[in-house]
């Protein structure tokens, strides 16, 4: 293997090395490192959870799998019996699979396979399976080929507009860099693997906490629904509907301005049951936009509820409660239904009630649409609000809020691990 050289002829080394390693790295053409294998072109309709042969679909490479795919993972789909063929290559440990098509610059995302252990696995639709011609440390290629250092080689080679792709011929033009010794490759890949395992374990903790929270929420709200002291009122009687705007993302900016905006997309994806305006910093409405038509009462206050009235899935009707808005000017935006309580509720009780199964079960029959689901103001006001005693409201809000704080803490840990991983990929490779 030839030593990697910089444009000025100097040998190249990564910024971060494990002790005992100082040799310059090697570089070689992709075509001299790999042989191409044969993939199949089976669609999702030809896959299921049974069958003798497993299939690696490009969509799963892009979204579901990380850099390394353990073949013991039971989420790998199977080829429906009768659709198998002997014309395709079965994969081995250490083989890599490149996704050759994507809707963005993730095209070229790569996985390395581990622990196949006699399983019959094929590379599927829109994939380029490859087999190393000489040994690399286990997992090294999976990690290296997803680094910015390597992936940037794909950018000028991509073709297409709405859908991007990269051909085998162009993949062959890229270069693979690696340490000269298997030992250093092993150090790098093992370190990143352990980091990934730590992040995966942390994610499982978060999933378990969210599951526990859902169960606790169901128990608490089902209990109050059966309580004789719980008042039940129509949303239309308990709330005043406020004025929202129809400003698109193009009308918003992250640059500080005088008025902030709660966009339905952020309610659906970004915000939890409570959005703290002073901490979560919603986008601003561009100062060039005329806001004179909005009366003073249209601006959101602490305790107001904002529903998302449109979504592409079952999340339509998701709600968030406003907090930390005192002294700030905030409007409710596109595809939202802002509401102000006419009754006194304990802070955050409504946030958790409107996202509970008890309330969500009322929403589902009222939703309209197929590809895009929506709920109207006229339908929303027909739903019921369960109002237990103030003491019970406080108890429910406190318990669920404490769980949210724990989940947020664990999520910050995952984010820290992710950021550390990103930085290490920049420094451990060239």
Features:
alpha+beta, 3 domains, Helix Hairpins, five-stranded mixed β-sheet, Adenine-n6-DNA-methyltransferase TaqI, Chain A, domain 2, 32% helix, disordered N terminus, 13 helices, 430 residues
Alpha carbon gap, first and last residue: 15 Å
Shape: elongated
Task: Give the CATH H-level superfamily of the largest domain.
Answer: DNA methylase specificity domains
Q: Residue ranges: pLDDT <50 for 5 or more in a row?
A: 1-9
Strand content: 15-25%
Average of pLDDT: 94
Order of strands across the widest beta sheet? 3-12-8-10-6
Q: How many whole angstroms does the radius of gyration measure?
A: 27 Å
- In this structure, how is the largest beta sheet organized? 5 strands, mixed
Count of the separate structural domains: 3
Instruction: Give the helix/strand class.
Output: alpha+beta
Tell me the helix content.
Answer: 25-40%
CATH topology tier name of the largest domain: Adenine-n6-DNA-methyltransferase TaqI, Chain A, domain 2
Tell me the total number of β-strands: 27
| Number of helical stretches of at least 4 residues | 13
Q: Mind telling me which CATH architecture of the largest domain this is?
A: Alpha-Beta Complex
Tell me the name of the CATH class of the largest domain. Answer: Alpha Beta
């Amino acid at each position: 293997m030839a030593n990697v050289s910089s444009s000025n002829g100097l040998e190249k080394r990564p910024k971060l090395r494990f002790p005992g390693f100082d040799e310059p790295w090697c570089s070689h053409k992709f075509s001299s490192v790999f042989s191409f294998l044969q993939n199949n072109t089976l669609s999702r309709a030809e896959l299921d959870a049974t069958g003798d042969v497993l299939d690696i679909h490009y969509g799963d490479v892009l979204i579901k799998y990380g850099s390394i795919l353990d073949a013991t993972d039971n989420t790998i789909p199977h080829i429906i019996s009768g659709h198998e063929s002997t014309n395709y290559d079965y994969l081995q440990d250490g083989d890599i699979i490149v996704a050759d098509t994507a809707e963005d610059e993730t095209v070229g995302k790569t996985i390395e396979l581990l622990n196949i252990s006699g399983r019959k696995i094929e590379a599927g639709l829109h994939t380029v399976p490859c087999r190393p011609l000489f040994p690399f440390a286990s997992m090294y290629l999976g990690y290296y080929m997803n680094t910015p250092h390597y992936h940037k080689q794909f950018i000028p080679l991509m073709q297409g507009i709405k859908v991007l792709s990269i051909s085998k011929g162009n993949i062959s033009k890229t270069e693979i860099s690696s340490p000269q010794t298997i030992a250093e490759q092993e150090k790098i890949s093992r370190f990143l693997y352990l980091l990934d395992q730590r992040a995966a374990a942390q994610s499982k903790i978060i999933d378990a906490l969210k599951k526990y929270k859902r169960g606790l929420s169901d128990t608490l709200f089902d209990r109050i629904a059966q309580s004789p002291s719980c008042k039940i009122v129509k949303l239309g009687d308990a709330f005043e509907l406020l004025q929202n705007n129809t400003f698109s993302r193009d009308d918003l900016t992250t640059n500080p301005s005088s008025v902030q905006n709660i966009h339905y997309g952020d309610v659906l994806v970004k915000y939890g049951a409570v959005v703290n305006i002073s901490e979560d910093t919603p986008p601003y409405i561009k100062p060039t936009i005329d806001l004179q038509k909005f009366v003073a009462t249209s601006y959101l206050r602490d305790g107001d509820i904002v529903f998302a009235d449109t979504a592409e899935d079952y999340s339509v009707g998701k709600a968030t409660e406003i907090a930390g808005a005192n002294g700030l000017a905030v409007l409710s935006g596109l595809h939202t239904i802002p509401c102000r309580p006419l009754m006194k509720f304990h802070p955050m009780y409504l946030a958790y009630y409107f996202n509970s199964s008890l309330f969500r079960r009322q929403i589902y029959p009222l939703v309209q649409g197929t590809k895009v689901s929506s709920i109207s103001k006229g339908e929303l006001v027909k739903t019921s609000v369960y109002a237990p005693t103030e003491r019970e409201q406080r108890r429910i809000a406190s318990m669920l809020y404490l769980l949210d704080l724990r989940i947020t803490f664990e999520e910050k840990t995952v984010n820290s691990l992710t950021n550390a991983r990103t930085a290490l990929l920049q420094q451990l490779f060239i």
